[in-house]
From TrEMBL:
It comes from Mesorhabditis belari. This is ShKT domain-containing protein. It comes from the Eukaryota.
Length: 124
């Protein structure tokens, strides 16, 4: 499961929050925005939202890769130095954004229990 991040920055997310209904929709329907870009400002419960948005697995609307199969296959390969793929650990948010389907982030089971690999940054 990807970490709850505020990659757009706390001040940017706070300004976006002033857009009211638009912000509400992004926080409840857009996986990238709600989990990676403005998670803390959205007050996203990642397991709950992930279970909702990915309930249909690979058939979910939010399940897609932003890059082609060749790129995502390379993305899945273990890093030579760490031995982990770019889909896990500190890189999970990057994998979620670029190769969500290939990295397995569309599987609703990963959102059914709180998973924490200890590498999520503390924000705020």
């Amino acid at each position: 499961m990807p970490c709850c991040l505020e990659s757009l920055g706390i001040s940017t997310c706070s300004r976006l929050k002033k857009r009211g209904l638009w912000f509400y929709h992004k926080c409840h329907e857009d996986a990238d925005f709600a989990i990676i870009q403005c998670c803390h400002t959205c007050k996203t419960n990642v397991p709950e939202l992930g279970s909702k948005l990915f309930a249909k697995g690979s058939k979910s609307l939010q399940c897609f890769d932003r890059h082609g199969p060749a790129f995502c296959q390379k993305f899945l390969q273990p890093d030579e130095m760490t031995g982990t793929s770019k889909c896990s650990g500190a890189n999970a948010s990057f994998g979620f954004r670029l190769c969500r389907r290939s990295c397995g982030f569309c599987e609703p089971e990963i959102y059914q229990e709180k998973r924490h690999d200890g590498q999520c940054p503390v924000i705020g």
